[in-house]
Task: structure prediction
Amino acid sequence: MDSRAATATIGSTPRDRVARLDDASFGAFYERTSKALWAYVYRVTGHAADADDIVQEAFCRLLRADIAGGEDGHRKYLYRVASHLVVDRWRRAGRERVAGGEEALAQVAAPGVGGDGDVARTFSALARRDRALLWLAYVEGESHAEIATALGVGARSVKVLLFRAKRRLKDLLSARGVER
Amino acid sequence: MNWFEVTEHDEERIAAFMARVAALPVRRAMADPLQIWWKAQMLRRWDAERKVVAPIDFMQPVELLAGAACLAFLLYRALPYLF
Result:
């Protein structure tokens, strides 16, 4: 048997067909989750093109992996992969803040809608890790252990890091008067 | 550092603010899911192909080395008869 024939056999075992998403179910899942995932990545990175790449890569990896736990398991896996990719990028880019990042973030808010612009600008003023921590904790409702896995930090550190992020956000909200 | 600086009221403020952040409109055309699906299928096929070919790739230099060693041994044993 040549390698191509062997590959075709490996890729079509009954177990694979059961465990993996087909194109229709993937399409429906993608419609439900892609925008929220993109928003998360974009709010953390501040770069739309990076967010496009990371979201595509995360979905690609989901399709290549056998993930148990149904839709919830798939969603958690997506956020974990996307967070890893975000962390990889900001480590590669070093600690320097990319010029225009904050402006780019604010642009997502509808022009002329003052409230949304303030919210986006206030959130973008936080450090990237704080943004990721707060999003995963408050928007995704992930546990400390899940956040630790997603962001590659110690499980015990998450509580402290999250507390500091909350405190910084609280100070920002008070300073900028972004309440309602 | 005061560990009690974030009160329950602050928690509520933060939760409300994060809800507003999450609700910010996303005006971005997302990639076609079918395109991502096919890309993943292709990558999966490559992964499987690489897994199948990996032992062959690993054994090739081993076979070459063994062949060279055998040839050297035979030459050594045949030397007295050659000259």
User: Anything to note?
Assistant: The longest helix of chain A spans residues 23-45. Confidence is low (pLDDT under 50) at residues 1-19, 98-114 of chain A.
